Amino acid sequence: xxxxxxxxxxxxxxxxxxxxxxxxxxxxxxxxxxxxxxxxxxxxxxxxxxxxxxxxxxxxxxxxxxxxxxxxxxxxxxxxxxxxxxxxxxxxxxxxxxxxxxxxxxxxxxxxxxxxxxxxxxxxxxxxxxxxxxxxxxxxxxxxxxxxxxxxxxxxxxxxxxxxxxxxxxxxxxxxxxxxxxxxxxxxxxxxxxxxxxxxxxxxxxxxxxxxxxxxxxxxxxxxxxxxxxxxxxxxxxxxxxxxxxxxxxxxxxxxxxxxxxxxxxxxxxxxxxxxxxxxxxxxxxxxxxxxxxxxxxxxxxxxxxxxxxxxxxxxxxxxxxxxxxxxxxxxxxxxxxxxxxxxxxxxxxxxxxxxxxxxxxxxxxxxxxxxxxxxxxxxxxxxxxxxxxxxxxxxxxxxxxxxxxxxxxxxxxxxxxxxxxxxxxxxxxxxxxxxxxxxx
Length: 441
Ligand code: 4AD
Ligand code: MG
Fold this sequence. Notes:
This protein has 441 residues and is of the alpha+beta class. It has two domains: 3-104, CATH 2.40.50.140; 128-429, BirA Bifunctional Protein, domain 2 (2-Layer Sandwich). The protein contains 14 helices and 18 strands. The protein has helices at 3-8, 62-68, 121-126, 128-131, 135-157, 197-207, 243-264, 266-271, 277-280, 291-300, 313-320, 375-384, 393-400, 413-421, and strands at 24-37, 40-46, 51-57, 76-85, 93-104, 161-162, 168-169, 181-183, 189-192, 209-217, 230-239, 288-290, 327-330, 343-344, 347-351, 353-358, 363-370, 406-412. It has an eight-stranded mixed β-sheet, with helices on both faces. It has a five-stranded mixed barrel with strand order 1-2-3-5-4. A three-stranded antiparallel β-sheet has the order 7-9-8, with no helix packed on it.
């Protein structure tokens, strides 16, 4: 049987095999595992959509039996057989194998390095290009894809226009300590983007409601389970929008992502043994507390936080543990927030900014707020933050020519997906994680 022939027969994916009960089908994939029991073989195949157990009898199918006997893990195979219900098999169906074509046989003397046992995480990260084949990792990546699809769908449905922002930038957006500097052409310096926000403020003035969704870079020197040096951020920005509008948009976006994964990736969540009862109630409205109230809560719980402190992982975990859905903390002290944040007119020491904290200790998934629209105030803030005014002239133009109140936020994709999946560390939810000590593979 050739690949060409297989595509002309009843080619199915494992995910959909159950719909072909009783029929003869062909699967294309890999040998995930093989159990030999005398004159019977029980291979488990995977094809990227799931796992399916097969059964082959030496007596009935000697050729298929010989092809599979002793076949090494992860050898690629095209198999045909009849689908039958088998309640004890993973997925509820098994394949009575009749034909097998080995596409590539993994050599016996160089076996697949990841065995079906526990391995250390560094061992697995060094082999991330292979690790992603395991059912758990594949399920996570399928959930990530659904979260992205749902996020785009939500933004598009809300009338936001996708405007892609540059990756090479001339200046910092989120503080100079996490900037990645790169040598640009002819002695020029550039930095990898920390956020598309400043450019979105320009496209928002051109198009009204906009968003970007792309890779973001931060030279994070700390080794935590919430930080990557390269991650994906979805950032909306809207002209004439205020803090309240963005808190509502963020809760709608997060809820739609969670509900879409629950609906369309139930099998994958089951593979991860995720307690989905903790996600089912993630719907608007999210609870909202002020920074002042947050500090009070922390102190009541014995945390040493004082007014004016920024919150770290521990504080975020305490705050979010009181709620069954994400909590929005708003109006932080301006001094601990970025240079572009609009001060609260009622209390100038506060910024009209907010963070959305995920439950179960996953921390900040969204940060955003209202931007300074006034030219003089923005110039003052640039100076106070020792930022190079020349590099920001184009940004100041937005306050010279038709400045309007505007607001936006950034949602960290990996933190959101890590929470939805219930993974311990966010490194598992991106195909190839980039961290302080890791850029391989
Ligand atoms: O709070 P941040 O720094 O906000 C901004 O960059 C704004 N300019 C966004 C905007 O208003 N357009 O980052 C936004 C989110 C965080 O809430 C977090 O979820 C995620 O990005 N994030 C990270 N995720 C993984 N690894 C890191 N090192 C991250 N740093 C931020
Ligand atoms: Mg933040």
